[in-house]
Design goal:
About 35% of the residues lie in helices and about 25% in strands. By secondary structure, it is an alpha/beta fold. The chain has 3 domains: about 5-175, Alpha-D-Glucose-1,6-Bisphosphate, subunit A, domain 3 (Alpha-D-Glucose-1,6-Bisphosphate, Chain A, domain 3); about 180-410, Alpha-D-Glucose-1,6-Bisphosphate, subunit A, domain 3 (Alpha-D-Glucose-1,6-Bisphosphate, Chain A, domain 3, 3-Layer(aba) Sandwich), CATH 3.40.120.10; about 415-530, 2-Layer Sandwich (TATA-Binding Protein). A hairpin with a 6-residue loop joins β11 (about 275) and β12 (about 285-290). The longest helix is centred in the N-terminal third of the chain and has 17 residues, at about 35-50. The protein binds 1,6-di-O-phosphono-alpha-D-glucopyranose.
Length: about 550
């Protein structure tokens, strides 16, 4: 089709960093530099063209993202460049999409891939863009490397005019909310769910954190399931809710620090289901009837009820139940019972590096420390899928989330887990921390806080299919006395400074203990380990600091 093409020579090329754990995240100012976005998008267009070879013309690409500042315009600019490269560009209304909805649209529409504009849980002052491939999954390392090369070697930008390309049919609008809601309807059977919801007067409370979730949640919980639902922060806003009382931009992150209203509502105990989702709706925090479920625990629950989503039909001979290595090992604890549930299949619980692409390539049935659960019908983490799955289990069993978890814990015990962070601005500090963790094995036998460091190592990922080491040093693992484990890795999603993520976990057969009593010794031991090497006063926050605990403590 004929569309006008304009060529812009890049006089002063920008240096573009390589995409990290999940796309490239930078502060707004970086993305807003003259021609930065265009150069970034040109590299992506060139890569899709190179990958498709002679078949490129007319291939579909899905494009959309969260509502953060500037994204609507960025969607148009990227569309102009992808269309000029000969692709048929598919865009949701207003460019607004969730990460899982784009992943589904890629698969459903047999597209060559997609581009998702989101900096996820980062505040609106950051911008992020990631690339997904034809399977719907995030691009893997080799592809990311090649995209990076092409982005930094682009000399000319070729773009068309957005309105002309729409008129010519090279850019097409779709109703991605309907497409995604139809998928969940097919998986969970909304008609049957709606009947039970009406009969039992099931109610919910949902916090969309002013990200992309609002319209999806309304369509699913209110329009299709006719639920009595309190909708918090429903409207997608470009400032994702603005600033907190200290003038800091709010984080659209479904963690206990950022959802005070939902916590208060859920504490009253009369809402059967409660959930919050991040700005691109791939993370979630679920609960209901006065309780919130931890990410790994919820996945263990889903794994136990896998038959409700016909999981068996999605896998060949082997079903992979995955968790990133820094996530609580709750799913591993129920491996034997999972094996009994799928007698005709090989069942494997797998530890992966952080980054959902590792779980996506094994069938996308897994969980991550950052409140992500995969939807095996697509190839990304999926927040609303998780919430609807929990709702389905509540409806089928008539039990509350706490009762459901207690059933599992009674049988297999509980992994007490919390995630914290140590952050700062100076790269020199990051280097000190790295050296310290790298050399931690030299500290074994010493006491930190009230615990003895028994072993320290870094963890490598052996790929379950190739048997080769597919990722090295994906986390440091510090094992302390009495089964206390602290893992650490640097965040790959920040836009400045450094954040060391710290993950504490401890298994106990007794599930009803106050959580803070279990996690405190690990936090103190890790603090003492840092302090012994001159690292004090770094900001630290653990997710259980504001977590309501039905078993008391603090
Ligand atoms: C991204 C990845 C996740 C990963 C997370 C880690 O999440 O998609 O697989 O768990 O980053 O974040 P960090 O490196 O900061 O610990 P998202 O939701 O931000 O795209």
């Amino acid at each position: 089709m004929n569309i006008p093409i304009k060529e812009i020579k890049i006089e002063k090329p920008c240096t573009i960093r390589k995409m990290g754990t999940s796309g490239l995240r930078e502060v707004q100012e970086v993305y807003n530099q003259p021609l930065f976005l265009e150069q970034f998008a040109q590299g992506i267009a060139d890569w899709f063209k190179e990958a498709a070879g002679t078949e490129a013309a007319g291939l579909k690409l899905i494009l959309g993202g969260d509502p953060r500042k500037g994204n609507q315009r960025r969607v148009e600019v990227i569309a102009e460049i992808l269309a000029a490269a000969g692709f048929h560009v598919i865009i949701p209304d207003n460019g607004l999409a969730s990460t899982p909805a784009v992943s589904h649209a890629i698969r459903h529409m047999k597209a060559a891939g997609g581009v998702i504009l989101t900096a996820s849980h980062n505040p609106f002052t950051d911008v992020g863009i990631k690339v997904n491939i034809a399977s719907g999954a995030p691009a893997l390392e080799d592809d990311v490397n090649r995209i990076h090369e092409l982005q930094n070697s682009a000399t000319v930008i070729r773009k068309t005019n957005y309105n002309e390309a729409v008129k010519a049919g090279c850019i097409e609008k779709i109703d991605i909310i309907k497409m995604y809601a139809d998928l969940l309807d097919n998986i969970f059977d909304f008609k049957a769910m709606k009947k039970i919801i009406a009969a039992q007067k099931i109610s919910g409370a949902f916090d969309s954190m002013h990200g992309a979730a609002g319209p999806f949640a309304r369509e699913i919980f209110i329009n299709r399931l006719s639920m009595d639902a309190l909708m918090l922060r429903e409207e997608p806003r470009e400032d994702l809710g603005g600033h907190d009382a200290d003038g800091e931009p709010l984080h659209p992150e479904p963690d206990f620090d950022y959802i005070p209203e939902l916590i208060a509502i859920n504490s009253a105990g009369d809402r059967h289901i409660a959930a919050a989702w991040d700005s691109d709706v791939d993370r979630r925090l679920d609960g209901g009837s006065g309780f919130f479920v931890e990410s790994a625990d919820e996945f263990a629950l889903f794994a136990s009820y896998s038959h409700l989503i016909n999981l068996e039909n999605l896998f060949g001979d082997t079903i992979y139940f995955c968790r990133s290595t820094v996530t609580a090992d709750a799913p591993d604890r129920i491996e034997e019972s999972l094996k009994k549930k799928f007698p005709g299949k090989e069942v494997r619980t797998i530890e992966t590096p952080t980054g959902f692409k590792w779980i996506a390539e094994l069938g996308n049935w897994g969980v991550e420390e950052s409140n992500g659960v995969g939807n095996p019908y697509l190839r990304e983490k999926d927040g609303i899928f998780a919430t609807v799955f929990l709702l389905k289990i509540i409806l089928e069993t008539g039990k509350t989330p706490l009762q459901l978890m207690e059933e599992i814990w009674k049988e297999s015990g509980r992994v007490y887990f919390t995630r914290g962070e140590v952050s700062g601005k100076e790269n020199s500090e990051k280097e000190v921390l790295t050296d310290l963790l790298q050399g931690a094995s030299g500290q074994t036998g010493k006491t930190f806080g009230n615990l003895i460091l028994e072993s320290a190592e870094s963890w490598n990922y052996t790929h379950p299919e190739s048997g080769t080491i597919a990722a090295r040093d994906a986390a440091w693992v510090l094992r302390f006395s009495d089964g206390n484990t602290v893992k650490a890795r640097f965040s790959g999603t920040g836009s400045s400074g450094y954040t060391l993520r710290v993950y504490c976990s401890k298994f106990d057969k007794d599930y009803g203990l106050p959580k803070s009593d279990i996690t405190r010794p690990m936090k103190e031991a890790f603090d003492a380990f840092l302090a012994a090497h001159g690292l004090t006063e770094k900001s630290k926050k653990y997710t259980d600091a504001h977590q309501p605990d039905v078993y008391g403590g603090k």
